[in-house]
Design a protein that fits this description.
Blueprint (H helix, E strand, L loop, with lengths): L1 H24 L6 E7 L4 H14 L5 E7 L4 H13 L4 E4 L8 H9 L4 E4 L10 E5 L1 H15 L4 E9 L3 H14 L5 E9 L3 H14 L7 E4 L2 H14 L8 E3 L10 H6 L5 E3 L5 H12 L7 E4 L3 E3 L3 H77 L2 H19 L9 H16 L7 H7 L4 H12 L3 H19 L4 H7 L5 H12 L3 H7 L1
Parallel strand pairs: 1-2, 1-3, 3-4, 4-5, 5-11, 6-7, 6-8, 8-9
Antiparallel strand pairs: 10-12
């Protein structure tokens, strides 16, 4: 009995040691969980999110969690509350509107979570830091440019941004202040937009129907997309020739169809760079979390884009984007390698732990068996004390037979090869599903089988063909990526091995009863 008690203590100590080893594997720097609440989802925010992720690479103790409200106040409030409940250490937020999002931001601040408000303002003073470009100054400089471009005389149609958002309010106010001293400049219409091209197109189209006799010399859009929406509406109205009106916007994004390219190609007459600077936002967040000095108010630099400088600016930005893409690729490779290394380390420790536990279990079983034998022998001795010699001999022989029988191991059951086969097949599929040209022949080759052998084996065990299982595996991974990443539908389709997003969407709807976009909006 004493031996058993000692082995139980040894068994518990072994478990504690293994747990400590596994904990040391998972150790490292303190992880800061930063929640990013974007009011919308567009190319400007895509660029900013990419910059946030890129700079987070340089801080291996930072984990980002993104949420996009798609211009919905209610959704953004829910997302901010959800981020708080997830245990974030800091909140980065671009409020959809000045008034409506403030209560949610206040709740985070009152809970002790540092808050960085960026790009858009809140009506509350409960924030840790604010970082943005000067939207009023953008509107004012663009207004001065428009006065100069029209030589002090002409008509302007304005397309404003989302009602109630601070950039829309400030850009409008700056523009109006700039032209108030130019009596020759007349604003013939100030239409309400929401930052999107389709809304600007419809608003302008309706305005043209009601103002056929009004001539528009220049359109000022609160951003480049609204300016382009108005351009399409005027071009389709047949009231204006293609180049009879000038168009100016704000954002000045690099890349294809960005504001800088639109100015270079003379689709826009001018734009204004609205800097994203996700790198500065991350640096500010880390300084706050680590208790380093930081500025409560940070205004980012920006610049006017015209045909005189658009070509040079575009070349510079494209080079920066290429370098960023290469860094992103290198980081992904390094991250995958380190992840595999960590996984292997954990697997090794688990294997050691399992071996130790098996050894302990074997020792315990053996000692328990010896204990039972000793108990039986003690009983035999006691019985022998009270029995005659003949009976003693018979009892001893019976006990020895009983002990010998107990020592014979039971016959082992046959190994279940079918589950092992399916596990191996699943591993092959998961490893190679990203290859859009993956065939059943490829899978069969990896399994050291012919195509016919693989088909028959998988069909017999699962009732489905290898092709069906491959498609289901791809769709399941795509579903998880839509829920857990900010990649668009096309990117997800290619990442899981579909060669055409349209076919991916069809298969996804057949499998889950809804299109990928609905999954993304519900996440």
């Amino acid at each position: 009995m004493k031996q058993q008690e000692n082995m139980r203590k040894f068994f518990l100590l072994t478990i504690i040691v293994i747990a400590a080893m596994l904990a040391s594997c998972a150790g490292g720097k303190v992880k800061y969980r930063i929640g990013v609440s974007q009011c919308s989802d567009d190319i400007w925010r895509d660029k900013q999110n990419a910059e946030l992720r890129m700079d987070a690479y340089f801080h291996d103790n930072v984990e980002l969690k993104f949420a996009a409200a798609y211009d919905s106040d209610e959704r953004q409030v829910q997302q901010i509350d959800s981020l708080m409940n997830d245990g974030i250490d800091l909140l980065i937020v671009a409020p959809n509107q000045v008034q409506t999002i403030s209560p949610a931001i206040d709740r985070a601040y009152d809970k002790g979570i540092p808050v960085i408000v960026f790009e858009r303002k809140t009506s509350s003073q409960k924030y840790t830091a604010f970082i943005s470009a000067d939207n009023y100054e953008m509107g004012r400089v663009m207004g001065e440019y428009i006065v100069s471009r029209l030589h002090g005389r002409g008509t302007v149609l304005e397309i404003k941004g989302l009602e109630g958002s601070s950039p829309a309010i400030e850009r409008h106010n700056g523009f109006m202040d700039a032209i108030k001293d130019a009596p020759g400049i007349k604003v013939v219409g100030s239409l309400q937009g929401d930052w999107t091209e389709p809304t600007a197109y419809e608003s302008t189209k309706q305005w043209l129907l009601n103002n056929k006799d009004v001539r528009v010399d220049l359109v000022f859009g609160a951003n480049d997309r609204t300016a382009m929406g108005a351009r399409k509406a005027l071009a389709n109205s047949k009231l204006y020739t293609l180049n009879s009106t000038l168009y100016c916007g704000i954002d000045g994004l690099p890349g294809e169809n960005g504001g800088i390219q639109l100015v270079r190609d003379s689709l826009l007459d001018a734009s204004y760079i609205y800097p994203t600077h996700g790198d500065q936002i991350i640096e500010l967040a880390v300084n706050i979390l680590e208790g380093k000095p930081y500025k409560k108010e940070t205004m980012l630099m920006s610049a006017l884009v015209t045909r005189d400088n658009a070509k040079v600016l575009l070349m510079q930005s494209e080079e920066l984007m290429r370098q960023a893409d290469r860094l992103d690729l290198l980081h992904d490779k390094a991250d995958n390698y380190l992840h595999e290394l960590d996984v292997q380390r954990v697997v090794n420790w688990l294997a050691i732990g399992v071996i130790i536990l098996l050894l302990v279990a074997i020792v315990l079983f053996y000692l328990n068996h010896l204990s039972k034998v000793n108990i039986r022998r003690e009983r035999v001795v006691n019985n022998l004390w009270n029995l005659g010699s003949t009976e003693s001999t018979e009892l001893t022989e019976n006990t020895e037979k009983t002990t010998a029988i107990a020592d014979i191991p039971e016959e082992g059951q046959k190994t279940e090869t079918e589950p092992l086969f399916i596990t191996r097949f699943r591993e092959v599929v998961e490893r190679r599903m990203t290859n859009s040209e993956l065939s059943v022949e490829d899978l069969a080759a990896d399994m050291n089988l012919s195509r016919v052998q693989l088909y028959r084996k998988v069909k017999a065990l699962t009732g489905s063909s290898p092709v069906e299982l491959l498609r289901i595996a791809r769709l399941n991974r795509a579903y998880q990526m839509l829920l857990t990443t900010d990649k668009n539908v096309s990117e997800v389709a290619y990442d899981v091995g579909f060669s055409a997003p349209a076919y991916f969407t069809k298969c996804f709807k057949d499998e889950f009863g809804r299109v990928p976009g609905e999954v993304r909006k519900s996440s």
